[in-house]
Structures are given as structure tokens and as C-alpha cells.
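Comment thread on ticket #2218

A.B. wrote:
> Attaching the input chain for the structure job we discussed in standup.
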Amino acid sequence: MQTVENRFIAVIAIIYAVGVAGFIIPALNPLFIWLTPINILGTFVIAWIFHKKWEINHFLMIAVIGLMGFFVEIAGVKTQAIFGSYYYGATLGKKWQSVPYLIGINWAAMVFYTSSLLAGRIKNNWGIAFLGACIMTIYDYLLEPVAMRYDFWHWKSNTIPLQNYIAWFAISFVFHLILNAASKPIKNKMASALLFIQLGFFLILHMYVRLF
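C.D. wrote:
> Ran it. Output below, let me know if you need it in another format.
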């Protein structure tokens, strides 16, 4: 099983490396933008397939966090008071109340990945929540200019407000606290690997978008 998992991680890393080229080469943009929702959902499913110890409470809490993230985003888009003034583009697929369904899955996935990475390494729930929120805010910082370039979402005047990062940190912190209070996150090698692969993916694209 370990060998199979390592092979899957290697294949996913190669797919993301190809994805970098797909986003950088203009002629390939439409295909890779179309594949984005499939990639987000597919990697989340793969992380659960390789989950070593399933606990219903843990799974349900991740699902609840995904729903909470989705409704926070609806409130954010409608009021413009949480993250700042923004709206979603077409890349993330079908929407309800102007918010892609997939954004809830992304919130669930990011909390799942970061909590899996930190599980067993830090005993204090507040410490886990703080580090988890830090990692997720770094992820968002790398993602933001990429998201605007490729029609994930857009900010008013093309300016990412500081308020967005503060909100991301605060909400991520609360989600991690809720997860750790209601269940015990479990180490997941695949989820941890996906987190680092995605951070590397968005780091490269972040630098490309900033330069070009």
C-alpha cells in the first residue's frame, strides 16, 4: 500500500508540473482551466482513498466545514464585508448564489490537508489552529494573483485587500479549532503531499503572474 501511495504521489506531482506548463502556455490555457474543477475534486477524493483510519465523526466534521466555508463565501460575495469586494468567475464551475459549489469543497480540502499534516506533531489545539491558519493564509497569498489571472475570482480594482488575508486567517483558525474540538485529525501522507504539491504549484504560478 505504501508503494502504491508513493507512486500516486509521484504521478500527481508530475500532473501538477504539467499543469504549470498548461497555465503558462496560452494555447493550453482553455484546456487546463477546464480541468481545474476536476483536479480540485479528484485530488480531494484521492486523499480520502488513501486515508488510513476512517472515523465517521472526523469525516462529518470535514463535510460540515465545507458547508460552513461555502456559506461564508456566499455572505462574503453578497455583503462584500468579510473578505472585501470580489466576485467569482467561470473557472470553478457551477454556482449557487453567485458562489461555485466547488469553493466549499476547497475549504474542506484545505482544512483536511493542513490538519492531516499537523496531526500528531502538535498536541495543543490552539497551536494546531494557529499553524493551520498560517499555512492556509500562505496558500491563499500564493493563489490570489493566479486566481485573478485565470478567472477563478476577481477583486474590485484588481487590488487584493489586506482584509481578505485577515479574514482567511481568522476563518481558517476557527475551522481548525472546530475540527480539533469535535474530532481528532489523523495523519494522512497523501493529504500532506497534496498540500505541498499545491503550494509549490501556486508558488511557481504566483511568480510567473507577478513577472508577466
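A.B. wrote:
> Thanks. Noting for the ticket: Residues 119 and 186 are 6 Å apart (CA to CA).
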